[in-house]
Amino acid sequence: MCILAAYIVDLFFGDPAWIPHPVRGIGWLINKLEEPFRNIVKNERLAGAFFACTIISLIWFVTFAVTHAAYLFNNYLGAVVSIVIIYTSLSIKDLGVESLAVFNALREEDLNKARASLSKIVGRDTANLDEREIVRATVETVAENIVDGIISPLFYAFLGGAPLAMAYKAVNTLDSMVGYKNKRYIDFGRLAAKIDDAANYIPARMGVIFLVLASWISGYNPLGAWNIAIRDGGKNPSPNSGLPEAAIAGALGVRLGGVNYYNATALRKQYIGDDMNPLDKSHITDAVKIAYVTSGLFIITAVVLLWLICKGKFL
Predict the structure, then answer these.
(1) Most buried of 45, 94, 226, 252, CB within 10 angstroms?
(2) How far apart are CA 154 and CA 310, in angstroms?
């Protein structure tokens, strides 16, 4: 099965910097087309809506055309192309590698190195963070990316193959580039942000179930994960990000949230979880462990369900 193969490839190879990555291509396309759409349609909200729909549709169509052409030429080639495309939509290994780079720097007591490593995976200012805040930022980004980088792309790959998985990455990339509530993007990026919220709505809630199971299997607190997800999952400004963060916080017995700085501007987020265990660098490895187990549970469940559905069709 292409999706399972893509998952395994990602676990082994991650995202080597020397390989051209489709998401970087999507980012390039977004940068190139933003100004033309702004110039053609003067109403910013309408321009942004056309812009988001065009990018997502174009990425789906191009991916569909490429995979369909490959399958027409040869089924094996089509499978390989699908595997490669789905693989590039995942960030399972990279999530662990980048997060553990922060952990290793903290273990070496090199805060500057830890801040530099953290700056590669978060959007907040990192220059003045102490160890506790570095740990908090890392655990939060691991939790959030369990949905964005693992469950959601796998979910859409199972629903619609490589084209839908890549369309989801277009949605996700649009949100990360234009989905801001600042003067430039509050109107232009409005629909892009809403589409991202809608796209992650089901995967984020499915993710809570798998995070609870993963917490139990990994030896953490599954009841805490469930209770805190229910209690605090809605405290994040995002309707989806707070759920995996709350589940991780509950599983580890830590408190996330607080004040973050973006371009020297403070943004206060509500606290998530209970401060039962002071945040420590070991919580980074704990969060990564839960993330890996969650991804494994999700892919196994999805593959079994798909096998049962296909088997039922031929009975």
Answers:
(1) 252
(2) 18
- The radius of gyration of the chain's CA atoms, rounded to the nearest angstrom, is 20
Helix (H) or strand (E) holding 288: helix 282-314
Determine the pLDDT at residue 236: 84
Q: How far apart are CA 254 and CA 165, in angstroms?
A: 33
Distance of CA 211 to the CA centre of its chain: 14
- pLDDT of residue 213 exceeding 70, the answer is yes
Cα-based angle 155, 219, 292 (whole degrees, multiple of 5):
30
In the chain, domain spans: 2-314
Residues with Cβ within 8 Å of 92's Cβ and at least 6 positions away in sequence, in order, are 7, 10, 11, 14, 149, 150, 291, 292, 295
Q: For 247-303, how does the pLDDT look when each residue is reduced to its tens digit (9 = 90+)? A: 999 999 999 998 888 887 888 889 999 999 999 999 999 999 999 999 999 999 998
Q: Provide the 10 A C-beta neighbour count for residue 93.
A: 17
Pure H helices in 108-189: 111-118, 131-146, 152-178
Place of tokens 């094996």: 76
Q: How many CB atoms lie within 10 A of CB 106?
A: 22
Distance CA 58, CA 7 (A): 25
What is the mean pLDDT of the segment spanning 209-235? 96
Tokens of 88: 């590039």
Tokens standing for residue 109: 């007591």
Residue 315's pLDDT band (cuts 50, 70, 90): very low
